[in-house]
Design brief:
By secondary structure, the chain is α/β, with parallel strands linked by helices. It is built from 15 helices and 8 strands.
């Protein structure tokens, strides 16, 4: 007897394109959201987007509350929760990069109220996913949450974001290749829950960026359009799967361990990109796609070596040999690599000298 069931939560509205920042009020009306919103932002996104959006709300007779976050911490999440209660907020609007959106996402989940995602940088797939990531000491915690009710991504704003944030978003998507490889391996060897649809969607987003890497250039709205739609597809894949598996494998474990060993050295997307080069090699050796991944990352100015990450060779080797301990998730790393094997893969792929 077939008894399987699933509940997939996805954004109800996704608005992407030139000048759509001015559509936030329209999106709120389309969702029939009532009451006062609380904007969660950070200093630069407040000037670029949050204040102009607040003016649009005020013109519509709605005065939003605004909280500006300096750092992404669980204390910041608690602060947003307290302010939302004090201001009697009916829903949240995360306006900014990963920091503001993740904090709004986690706070809204705790408050059991909806939130809108208004990204100002195409830096990672958290703009639409059902997971939030917040640093905690020398590590980073990925926490289950609800996806946004809607996403409003203005390509004009995104194209003008710092180029390194966009390249980090591209690298994060390209790493979906190895995340799905790990997921299939875990299905075969550990019989983990697996979704062909989510895996195919995640792979497709990586392929789009690898195939179009030469077209991704700073300051171009067309580039922001391609990258943002890929990030959204990746986030949707996670919602379909009900986990981060379509976009998080050994390459993410490697990145999380780098966060512990060399905190703040590089952006998350750049770290997973470099990790993906090495884990792709582990999956296929010289016959694998690791060279294609490295070439695509290089084409978009994303790091491909430890030196470009600002991390020394020994830290890379230590991260490879210990990152399997971070969480109970089966990947190509299995029960871990010894130092000689880690140094060999990092050297053969050019990550270290």
């Amino acid at each position: 007897m077939f008894e399987k069931s699933t509940w997939i939560r996805l954004p109800r509205n996704v608005v992407v394109g030139h000048g759509v920042r001015s559509k936030v009020v329209d999106v709120v009306n389309d969702l029939h959201l009532q009451g006062r919103p609380l904007f969660v932002t950070s200093p630069t996104p407040r000037e670029v987007a949050a204040d102009p959006i607040a003016a649009d709300f005020e013109a519509a007779g709605i005065e939003p509350a605004i909280v500006t976050i300096e750092k992404a911490t669980f204390e910041a999440v608690e602060r947003v929760i307290d302010i939302a209660k004090t201001e009697a907020a009916a829903y949240l609007v995360g306006i900014g990069g990963g920091k503001a959106i993740d904090i709004a996402k986690l706070a809204s989940y705790h408050l059991e109220m909806g939130f809108l995602s208004v990204p100002t940088a195409a830096s990672h797939d958290g703009i639409v996913s059902n997971r939030g990531s917040v640093p905690n000491g020398d590590s980073r915690h990925s926490v289950a949450a609800e996806p946004p009710l809607a996403v409003v991504a203005d390509t004009g704003i995104l194209a003008n974001a710092p180029w390194e944030l966009t390249t980090a978003g591209c690298a994060d998507i390209i790493s979906n290749y190895t995340a799905v490889m790990d997921w299939r391996l875990a299905k075969r060897l550990q019989d983990v829950e697996y979704s062909e649809y989510a895996a195919a969607l995640s792979e497709m987003t990586a392929e789009i960026l690898v195939d179009n890497a030469d077209l991704i250039r700073p300051g171009l709205e067309e580039s922001a359009w391609v990258v943002t739609k890929a990030l959204m597809s990746s986030g949707v894949a996670m919602s379909i799967a009900g986990s981060s598996r379509p976009a998080s494998g050994a390459e993410h474990l490697f990145s999380h361990q780098l966060d512990r060993l060399a905190p703040g050295a590089a952006l998350h997307g750049h770290q997973v990109g470099v990790g993906s080069i090495m884990t792709a090699y582990l999956h296929g050796g010289d016959r694998g796609i690791w060279r294609d991944i490295r070439a695509a990352l290089s084409s978009i100015d994303a790091p491909t070596t430890a030196a470009e990450l600002g991390i020394d060779d020994e830290t890379v080797v230590e991260a490879l040999t210990t990152c399997h301990e971070i969480r109970d998730r089966y990947t190509i790393l299995g029960d871990g690599m010894n130092e000689r094997a880690a140094r060999d893969v990092a050297t053969k792929t050019g990550v270290i000298d």
